[in-house]
Specification:
Blueprint lengths: L2 H11 L3 H4 E6 L3 E6 L7 E6 L8 E7 L2 H17 L4 E3 L13 E3 L5
Antiparallel strand pairs: 1-2, 2-3, 3-4, 5-6
């Protein structure tokens, strides 16, 4: 996807997060799963956690259906709460896909 197309699709998503939301966990970190228009797959889960990548958003998984997205969201919340991985790997599509494979190591070890 070229940058111009991504900008248009990103603009389409601005201001309507609540409409696109599948699930959101927000305590000491955020796990957000929603519908997207800037990716090859229509749903994504992203994590924003101060222990990974200096707290930047990391797209960790994409899905084809809303049900898959809801299941994936719960799986990521449980994982981060019970057994945080040593790293999060960027899997984002579209423009974010340019960062695909970037590893965000956990800076605070349990």
């Amino acid at each position: 996807m070229d940058f111009f197309r991504w900008m248009i699709q990103a603009e389409d998503m601005a201001g309507n997060h609540e409409e696109r939301l599948v699930a959101r966990y927000e305590e000491e970190f955020i796990v957000d799963t929603c519908a997207v228009t800037d990716s090859d797959m229509p749903f994504e889960t992203a994590i924003k956690h101060p222990d990974y990548g200096d707290g930047v958003w990391v797209i960790v998984e994409s899905y084809n259906t809303r049900d898959e997205a809801a299941d994936g969201h719960g799986r990521w919340v449980r994982l981060i709460l019970s057994n945080p991985p040593d790293e999060l790997v960027e899997t984002g599509g579209a423009f974010a896909g340019m960062m695909k494979g970037i590893v965000h190591p956990r800076t605070v070890q349990a």
